[in-house]
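We now fix the convention by which a protein and its fold are recorded. Here is one such record, which you should read through line by line:

>
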Amino acid sequence: MKLLINVAHPADVHLFKHLIWMFEKRGHDVKIIARNKDLCKTLLDIYGFEYDLISNAGNGIFGLGLEMISRTIKFVSIIKKYDPDLVLTMMDPPSAIASKVCGKKYISLADTEHSKLVINLTLPFSDVVLTPSCFKTDFGDKQTRYDGYHELAYLHPNFFQPNPNVLSELGLTENDPYIVMRFVSWNAIHDVGQRGIGNKKDLVKMLEKYGKVFITSEEKLDVELERYQLKLPPEKLHDLLYYATLYIGEGATTASECAVLGTHAIYVNTLRLGYLEEEEEKYDLVYNFSTQDDIEKKVYNKALELLKNPSLREDGKKKRDKLLKDKIDVTAFMAQFVEQYI
């Protein structure tokens, strides 16, 4: 089988990495097309993947539009030359349109209901859309649901075992409390008009009373917060999240990563997501704060409530056990689905 996989975001690298390695071991030919966004290229290099980099992420609606046109043209050329049996990506208009133009089977994955523009531009050209069972949008006959989350494609115990050595690199032990925070850049199309954590400095000062604070941020931090910036290779972040006392941030993927690792997460973002709502309502591992009114006060109160619990970490790992019993190995599911579809 010849498979073309598009990687347009750092999270896509994690989503597909074990699938790519699995297919290569089975003798399949896999070609990776990449987009230079945030740490996407860095992660591909760290994991030793060969790939074709075809664009840099555009800025603003105009820049993203130009990038989309350029990527679509390049994808058509690549698909015609490589001649894959199937194209597999997260929902992505350029690769979807190019696949249809070239008459190739196209499977997309989706877990973000509010990415409406991307969905509307990709769905008509998709043969199948794979979504978590908790995904709140109905795509009709094209949709196949599975009991899992994207994060379980790389953080399921079949693939991920935490490495405590990451703690010593930061001068910590497994008994030391610490909090990880994440701030996003708010430059995606669906981020227009949205908001997250407002008074970051006051929140950090409050959290410091309960443990060391590490911040990972897509945007440049204020001078007062620079000393909290996490200095750790990106491929070790999941080890750090596993041992963390608490996560607070605007990043949805990181919140869900924490949930499947058994670390409680406070998600502060006016955008709602089906998988995070399920991780709150069913597993009590994520706490979603999306209303504009008194969002900071509510976040402070919830953080204090959690941090005052001396068994917070142990409770989180027990909740994780329940989650893992309910959910599947998403990489194994994707592999089986793709091979059967071909």
About this structure: Confidence is low (pLDDT under 50) at residues 189-194. Residues 76 and 98 are 5 Å apart (CA to CA).
